[in-house]
Amino acid sequence: MGGCCSSCFNSGSQEELLSPDLETRRRQLAEAAENRAKQNEARGLSNPEKVQRKIEQARAREDKMDKYASQSGNTTLKWQAN
């Protein structure tokens, strides 16, 4: 009774049935790594998007200052003692 083996029902190997193809698996692993990185960056922050906007604004402000400094020439302040 029941002399059928499991290989009678499998068209491919057991490994092929359980895991997706290699490219799909790589994509899933890459997405999971990106999600973990985002979570680690946002750990302890109530609003990570706001922090990112502030960082971008600071960079833009710094770039503007560098641009104006290069246009006006030497803008460093020098102290002179009399």
TrEMBL record:
GO process terms (BP): negative regulation of ERAD pathway; negative regulation of retrograde protein transport, ER to cytosol; negative regulation of VCP-NPL4-UFD1 AAA ATPase complex assembly; positive regulation of autophagy
Polar residues bias: start-end ranges: 69-82
UniProt keyword annotation of Lipoprotein present: yes
Basic and acidic residues biased stretches: 32-41, 50-67
Region ranges (Disordered): 32-82
GO cellular component terms, A-Z: endoplasmic reticulum membrane
A Pfam family this chain is assigned to: SVIP
Protein name: Small VCP/p97-interacting protein
Species of origin: Frankliniella occidentalis
